[in-house]
């Protein structure tokens, strides 16, 4: 049922102008007793929506009522999951439509946990509250960290329970994304569509995300290169803050270059390239230190999927695609090194900077130093006595070298510190903080802990007094922490 409201929706459905194989029309399955538990006022306002009218729209955020102009669909896609190719699709999500903001941006409005779709396979199409709150919290924290990401507009509880190992309260998350086009969408087109379908999808993606490429001589090779560049930049940003995505399957790699699919993701405390949190990633395929290479693997699957469009001559297409893929690690290294220089307050470039950076990381690994707090300490020039790293002679030698390096640039100490503060978050959503906030909300219906944490994380570069309680070293950092997909 659609009702006219003053919520400010301006919905279009451009994705549905693609061939029918790319989606299925589907209605969200109504829920019993929806209640809004999280609402993102700032995001609603930013999107030109009427926050005060929307705030209590539990019927809307649950899918019980459609927004004006909404025409819900589930999107079809495929993907390599842990290396194995399979047909997927939105099994528990529906796209309500694309909202056009007053300043002309187009964003997908999607409900996650809204019931079964033709792509649900054995699943119930539902989500439980804990994982939806987790996605809300971490995606908004990523936004605060200035990392491209989908956003979270609201969470509703459904008044129903979902059966997992035990029964959990059901919930639905409203996600906002630049689009939900994935590498897996192209793999789907390549495997289940004709060349014409693939081309229509590519043209759609170029129009929506890379319109500046439209008139290029070979816009599809330009498209491949730009997607590669965006992902290289994104993954470098993850590495720089210690974010571990956890499921870098090709269906979770976006064409727009946004972080998407917050399942088992988590932030690393102790610096260790082998860090894995996801319970199902038993071989560490998506470990922290593997993320850049896996990004390259995923992008190779993207290149394969659109190869047909690049050149009619298969050898020529392959040659061009290979060249673009080879550029990926080079781009990644550049983005990472640029970011690391900023983390150390370096404005200019010296040949030996890489060595200086790697020496620090080696020492951090050796002394099991907390990643975030090492850089926080360097930024503040205050060294936590509880961190072994700072007692080590080798660190003291490194510090002297770094100070000498800083002295060779003309910027003032204040300027250097400003640069470091803007690039080293004072706080991150630490695992124990996230768990505590979710636990309070789910078990005691108390959202104040989560709201307070979200507020602190909205500007992690503020170095404010209110953030200090979140900046202490985590308790028992060595205790193995496990995350789950939340399916
Ligand atoms: P994800 O792990 O969220 O990337 O999901 C992988 C695939 O499983 C996607 O096709 C999802 O739509 C589907 N899926 C995950 N959870 C459910 C569920 N509860 N019911 C139906 N499909 C699901
Ligand atoms: Mg996914």
From TrEMBL:
The active site is at residue 251. Keywords: ATP-binding, Magnesium, Manganese, Metal-binding, Nucleotide-binding, Nucleotidyltransferase, Transferase. Its EC number is 2.7.7.-, 2.7.7.108. The keyword Nucleotidyltransferase applies. Nucleotidyltransferase involved in the post-translational modification of proteins. It can catalyze the addition of adenosine monophosphate (AMP) or uridine monophosphate (UMP) to a protein, resulting in modifications known as AMPylation and UMPylation. The lineage of its organism: Bacteria, Bacillati, Bacillota, Bacilli, Bacillales. This is Protein nucleotidyltransferase YdiU. It comes from Gracilibacillus orientalis. Belongs to the SELO family. Mg(2+) binds at residues 252, 261. One of its GO terms (molecular function) is ATP binding. Its cofactor is Mg(2+); Mn(2+). It holds the Pfam family SelO. ATP binds at residues 89, 91-92, 112, 124-125, 175, 182, 261. It catalyses: L-seryl-[protein] + ATP = 3-O-(5'-adenylyl)-L-seryl-[protein] + diphosphate; L-threonyl-[protein] + ATP = 3-O-(5'-adenylyl)-L-threonyl-[protein] + diphosphate; L-histidyl-[protein] + UTP = N(tele)-(5'-uridylyl)-L-histidyl-[protein] + diphosphate; L-tyrosyl-[protein] + UTP = O-(5'-uridylyl)-L-tyrosyl-[protein] + diphosphate. It comes from the Bacteria.
């Amino acid at each position: 049922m659609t009702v006219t409201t003053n919520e400010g929706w301006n919905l279009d459905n451009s994705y549905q102008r693609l061939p029918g194989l790319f989606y299925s029309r589907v209605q969200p399955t109504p829920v019993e007793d929806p209640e809004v538990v999280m609402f993102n006022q700032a995001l609603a306002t930013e999107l030109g929506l009427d926050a005060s009218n929307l705030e209590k729209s539990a019927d809307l955020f649950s899918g019980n009522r459609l927004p004006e102009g909404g025409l819900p669909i589930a999107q079809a896609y495929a993907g390599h999951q842990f290396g194995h190719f399979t047909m997927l699709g939105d099994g528990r999500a529906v796209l309500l439509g694309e909202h056009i903001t007053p300043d002309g941006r187009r964003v997908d409005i999607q409900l996650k946990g809204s019931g079964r779709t033709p792509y649900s396979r054995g699943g119930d199409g539902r989500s439980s509250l804990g994982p939806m709150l987790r996605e809300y919290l971490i995606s908004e924290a990523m936004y605060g960290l200035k990392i491209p990401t989908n956003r979270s507009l609201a969470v509703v509880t459904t008044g129903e329970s979902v059966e997992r190992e035990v029964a959990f309260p059901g919930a639905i998350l409203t996600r906002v994304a630049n689009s939900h086009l994935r590498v897996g969408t192209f793999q789907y087109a390549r495997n289940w569509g004709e060349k014409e379908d693939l081309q229509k999808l590519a043209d759609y993606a170029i129009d929506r995300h890379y319109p500046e490429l439209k008139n290029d001589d070979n816009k599809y090779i330009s498209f491949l290169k730009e997607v590669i560049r965006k992902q290289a930049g994104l993954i470098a940003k993850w590495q720089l803050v210690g974010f571990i995505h956890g499921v870098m399957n090709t269906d979770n790699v976006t064409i727009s270059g946004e972080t998407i699919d917050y399942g088992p993701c988590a932030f690393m405390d102790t610096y260790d390239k082998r860090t894995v949190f996801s319970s199902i990633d038993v071989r560490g395929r998506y470990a922290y230190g593997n993320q850049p290479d896996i990004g390259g693997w995923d992008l190779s699957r993207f290149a394969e999927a659109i190869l047909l469009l690049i050149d009619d001559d298969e050898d020529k297409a392959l040659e061009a695609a290979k060249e673009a893929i080879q550029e990926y690690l080079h781009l990644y290294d550049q983005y990472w090194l640029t970011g690391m220089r900023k983390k150390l307050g370096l404005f200019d470039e010296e040949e030996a900077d890489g060595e200086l950076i790697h020496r620090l990381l080696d020492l951090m690994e050796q002394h099991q130093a907390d990643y975030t707090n090492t850089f926080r300490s360097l930024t503040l020039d205050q060294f936590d006595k509880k961190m072994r790293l700072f007692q080590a002679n080798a660190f003291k030698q490194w510090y002297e070298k770094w100070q000498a390096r800083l002295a060779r640039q003309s910027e003032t100490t204040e300027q250097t510190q400003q640069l470091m503060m803007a690039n080293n978050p004072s706080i991150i959503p630490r695992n124990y903080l996230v768990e505590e906030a979710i636990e309070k909300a789910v078990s005691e219906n108390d959202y104040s802990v989560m709201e307070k944490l979200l507020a602190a994380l909205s500007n992690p570069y503020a170095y404010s007094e209110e953030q200090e309680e979140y900046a202490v070293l985590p308790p028992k950092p060595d205790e193995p922490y496990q995350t789950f997909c939340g399916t």
